[in-house]
From TrEMBL:
Organism: Sphingomonas hominis
Family annotation (PROSITE patterns): TAT
Official protein name in the record: Ferritin-like domain-containing protein
InterPro entries reported in the protein's UniProt record: Pigment-catalase-like, TAT_signal
Coiled coil: none
Length: 351
């Protein structure tokens, strides 16, 4: 495990280069450009004819064009931190019945963190293997939170309000209903059994992998990029464990396989239909269940080149907000009031 204090020393050496950061960044996913600002154009005319002319009707006052600050490495890491808060809380509650400490959810400047709705300890006594996996993943996710907070220092955002409830009004139930895994009057509780816990984890892990891969091209600092690659690799291991165990259990309970297909299809609908880019692993079918054509195993959701898919900020937000349409995409689902990002472009998921 990386010592956060050492991470600060390593990352501090790159601070001098931050002033030269690009003002414009182009995301790898979907060819969307992040603009550092916008300007209003105005013009005036002049001639030498002093003949009085009728005064023109006054033009309406122009509405200033909203501007977005340039996305920095800190912005990207804070977006990752928001996702790590969500994953860490889910796994820690499932393993311990409690989540992150107050000190681990406050901002780097000391502002209090948000609240967690839901969360409960899972009884793994009947499936100690899944319990062992859950404990390891929980420790990794808590370490990711600690590492990112240490790297960001005073710039680290506080944890936003998070909903990981398995009740009728919980985000997991809303996600399962939207995917068609359960009916409109049913609930989905990821803490009620090891199998349901795995399905809950399945919702998160694949999204985490694609989010880190999509964010990688936005990072300008190689030290940060290497750290992000390390977290991406850990998330990919987690996703592989979850998918493999679900597949094995699905051999005896096909409903688990069906559920993963429905969840994957729902995530595809939420993240839209980006143009295919086989080199960067981007495509309209960037989410896949545990079986492919001919009922073959599909434990690695990859494109024709065997590459993992990427998602940009907007796609990730659409999934965790459980909201693909509408003008207001500033919260919902697992983040009722939205993610905490200083840069409005990332806060509303429009990257």
């Amino acid at each position: 495990m990386i010592d956060p204090r050492k991470a600060i020393e390593i990352l501090a050496a790159a601070d001098a280069r931050r002033a030269a950061r690009r003002g414009f960044l182009k995301a790898a996913g979907g060819g969307v450009v992040l603009l550092g600002g916008a300007s209003l154009l105005s013009a005036c005319g002049e001639d030498n004819d002093f003949t009085p002319a009728p005064a023109p009707a006054p033009a309406p006052s122009p509405t200033p064009t909203p501007t977005s600050a340039a996305v920095t490495d800190n912005d990207v890491l804070n977006l990752a931190l928001n996702l790590e808060y969500l994953e860490a809380q889910f796994y820690l509650y499932a393993v311990n019945g409690t989540g992150l400490s107050e000190a681990m959810i406050a901002s780097g400047s000391g502002a209090a963190g948000g609240t967690v709705t839901g969360g409960a300890r899972v009884d793994f006594t009947g499936d100690p293997v899944v319990g062992a996996y859950a404990r390891e993943i929980a420790a990794d996710e808590a370490a990711h939170v600690a590492f990112l907070r240490a790297a960001l220092g005073s710039a680290a955002v506080a944890m936003p309000n998070i909903n990981i409830d398995g009740g009728a009004n919980g985000a997991f139930t809303a996600a399962a209903r939207a995917a068609g895994v359960i009916g409109g009057n049913e609930t989905f509780n990821p803490y009620s059994s090891p199998e349901n816990f795995l399905l809950g984890a399945f919702i998160f892990e694949d999204v985490g992998v694609t989010a880190y891969k999509g964010a990688a091209p936005l990072l300008t600092n190689k030290t940060y990029l290497e750290a992000a690659a390390g977290i991406l690799a850990a998330e990919a291991y987690h996703a592989g464990i979850v998918r493999t165990v679900l597949y094995a259990k699905g051999m005896a309970a096909s409903s688990l396989i069906t559920a993963t297909t429905k969840i994957s299809d729902a995530r595809d609908l939420l993240d839209g239909t980006p143009a295919n880019d086989d080199v960067r692993g981007i495509g309209s079918d960037d989410d896949q269940g545990l079986v492919g054509s001919g009922n073959a195993a599909n434990l690695v959701p990859a494109n024709v080149n065997g590459l993992a898919y990427s998602r940009n900020s907007q796609q990730v937000h659409n999934i965790v907000y459980l909201n693909a349409t509408g003008a207001n995409r500033t919260g919902g689902g697992f983040f009722p009031n939205g993610t905490n990002n200083p840069n409005a472009t990332l806060r509303v998921g429009l990257s």
